[in-house]
Give the backbone structure.
Amino acid sequence: MLAVTTNHYLVLSFLLFTIGLFGIMARRNLITVLMSLELVLNSVNLNLVAFSYQLSDLTGQVFAVFTITVAAGEAAVGLGILIALFRLRETTQLDQAAELKG
Amino acid sequence: MSGADLLFYLFAALALGAAVLVVSLRNPMYGAISLLATFLSIAALFLLRHAEFVAAVQIFVYGGGIMVLFLFVIMLVNLHRMRETTKYDRQTPLAAVLGVLLVALFVTVFAAASFGPPLARPEVFTAGARGISGNTQAVAWVLYRDYLLPFEIASLFLLIAMIGAVVLGRRT
């Protein structure tokens, strides 16, 4: 336990990123996959804000706001796809929608 | 170790624990609540790094908007039908190995990287149009002066996303 530096934020951000990535790859429920995607985007924001503080530059914070915008749009479209899938298949399990698997 | 450092460790542990719960809980409803805990912890971490406006937006957009969207959809789809199925995909071992390797690689790199002490010019985060005025005005100043075009593109993006969501969710 020592004084918090930018490195601490980077390690935390990357741990969150990997947890989200694992969720995206491993889970079968589309709702959980979308939630893991939000985790990944959030960890990127943490990185941007940490470097904004490190460099005393507001650009990182501005880009964090942009990332939040993109995350909001992504959540809306992703959940729209989920609703469409559920109407078509009566399920949200990803491996039940494998027509393109060949 | 100062109080701010203590708060960092507290909220970092909270965020990590809640994130693990998000990817491991079977019921998406509990997963969404854990996700909310992660969002709020990360907002607190933003506050510790002088990003007050981003922290507020994080709570409004993530904790408010996106969370309500998730909860609505979870309640809309029938959860009972998914209860018997298995939770993880067949590629889970591969994902776990990949995740552990990535963590090992990046934690080594990030822990070893040296950025030196922060520049420590806190007035940058609060300097608006007329001297010291607060983080919101400072961010707005940069956003509208230097990043006006990306800002407009973001608004167009939101319009497209809205139309796309409506079209996708429409009953055909």
Q: What stands out?
A: Chain B has a mean pLDDT of 87.
